[in-house]
Specification:
Blueprint lengths: L4 E4 L6 H12 L2 E4 H9 L3 H8 L1 H18 L5 E4 L10 H8 L1 E5 L3 H9 L14 H19 L4 E3 L1 H4 L4 H15 L1
Length: 181
């Protein structure tokens, strides 16, 4: 397994929270690429999308990932990508070249339930939706993104992720990585 590790998956799949827990367990560094975007550009991804549009955000997001890969000198790092990052241009191919990618796979209904319990104001495309509306939105979008996510080096399957706590997902990732590093 090549380092660093990039966690990919839909919004709410646990990339950030489980990723932080995982990095702590491993004693590695952690970078949330949405937080890095905000530090570099002065806007959260949601603010940037509202101000400049999704297309401009995706362009800037790509540079953040590539720049951080060049600037951060250590390999033992876990990155949490944005949910749509792997689905734009050749981004998934880029992640595969930069390190090891792991897809956190969930059923749409469990993502909808999980996301309905969060502050959707930070997720502009989901803002104002009920759990039922989230499911109607997430299902086709997840189907469209699946071909990109499934290009990850490894997949943490639905049986491992669905309805699990972030702590449990981090434990599964920890065991998975320890077997391979």
């Amino acid at each position: 397994m090549e380092l660093p590790i990039y966690l990919v998956g839909y919004m709410g799949s646990g990339k950030t929270t489980a990723g932080r827990l995982l990095a702590d367990k491993l004693g590695w560094h952690f970078v949330d690429l949405d937080e890095a975007f905000q530090q570099i550009h002065g806007y959260s991804p949601a603010e940037y999308i509202r101000e400049f549009g999704l297309e401009e955000f995706r362009k800037k997001e790509k540079y953040v990932v590539e720049d951080l890969a060049d600037q951060i000198p250590f390999e033992k790092i876990i990155y949490a990508t944005g949910g749509g990052y792997p689905c734009w241009e050749d981004n998934m191919e880029c992640l595969r070249e930069l390190g090891t990618s792991i897809y956190l796979k969930w059923k749409p209904e469990h993502l909808a339930k999980r996301l309905s319990l969060t502050d959707l104001s930070e997720r502009p495309i989901l803002q104002g939706r009920t759990e039922k509306e989230l499911l109607s939105f997430i299902t086709p979008q997840l189907e469209a993104r699946e071909p990109f996510y499934s290009q990850a080096h490894y997949t943490l399957p639905i049986e491992v992720c669905d309805e699990q706590s972030d702590e449990r997902i981090a434990q599964k990732l920890f065991a998975f990585i320890r077997e391979r590093v």
